[in-house]
Amino acid sequence: MAAVPWVALILSFAATIHNHIGLVEASVDIGVCYGMLGDDLPAATEVVNLYKTNGIGKMRLFDPNPAALEALRGKEIDVSLGIRNEDLPQLTASVDAVNLWFATNVEPYLNDIVFNYISVGNEVIPGSLGIYVLPVMQSLQKILDDRNLAGIKVSTVVPGSALGVSFPPSSGEFALEASSVMSGIVAFLAQRGSPLLINVYPYFSYASDPVNIRLDYAQFTATSPVVKDGELSYYNLFDAAVDSFLAAMEKVGGANVDVVVSESGWPSDGNGNFTTPELAGTYNRNFLKHITSNAGTPKRPGAYIEGYIFAMFNENQKPEGVEQHFGLFHPNMQPVYSIY
């Protein structure tokens, strides 16, 4: 047998230990979502090297792309791995299908990649696919339990529209069309000690109502409280959105459930003066600072809330307009603006 470099053995051991028992890591690296809806994006190996070069220690993959997973082997980048929305009905119909999905997309990489989360669906609640989420989460959890893979948490990703009430934050509650599904999911998360993954976009709130939502409130730059909610004071819309989700989970028995911000960002183009590189850079720099400061939110001061910037690249196959301009980098790997 050929000699194995010591560094490879160490990385393999670290990934195995994390996936099995779950390590509390001191890394303050921000995560970045690796979207692939572009026909001019660099190869996965180049992308992974770009993460490493820029000190980005966490990656969110929307689906188990084989080239990306191969490129991530031994790279010490923690991965949040998604299941495609269109796969959910098939996976719900058959436990064998879930076993095959895991055997194909996770098991071969367990010794070389640290998987933090497997997210069952992306923004399918509320919606017709929402009913499939919890059964797949339960099947995946059984697989992880059977293999003693306690370091991998199972969750789902929900958008702001999963909330029917979000203001004031303490009144947060799930939308009527989402409440039944979310009650079951939150109970599962509470039982397993897993977080809910939420997408938080102050940009969209600001752009849709700039008269009533201040830019400094949306960009973390307000110097005095903008919203008072009982005894709590809110300086930024991001905290208010997070606390609205926390309040909504409390109302369905999930007071102990944490959140991970699986997407947040600001487009650099596509909507006139609302979307400039300067505004995008300001938001993402302040988001990075807010997440890594462990400031928490007014409802949970001092709590570490993990966060992921959307996205790594501008993607030209997304819908025209702002959706094509959330990237930190152009496809040629040159920065759109600096976040450091």
From TrEMBL:
BP term (GO), one: carbohydrate metabolic process
Keyword Cytoplasm assigned: no
Record-stated family: Belongs to the glycosyl hydrolase 17 family.
Protein name in UniProt: glucan endo-1,3-beta-D-glucosidase
Top-level taxon in the UniProt lineage: Eukaryota
Top-tier EC class: hydrolase
Key words of the record: Glycosidase, Hydrolase, Signal
Catalyses which reaction(s): Hydrolysis of (1->3)-beta-D-glucosidic linkages in (1->3)-beta-D-glucans
EC number(s) per entry: 3.2.1.39
Pfam families linked to this entry: Glyco_hydro_17
Signal peptide interval: 1-26
PROSITE patterns, alphabetized: GLYCOSYL_HYDROL_F17 (PS00587)
Molecular-function annotations in GO: glucan endo-1,3-beta-D-glucosidase activity
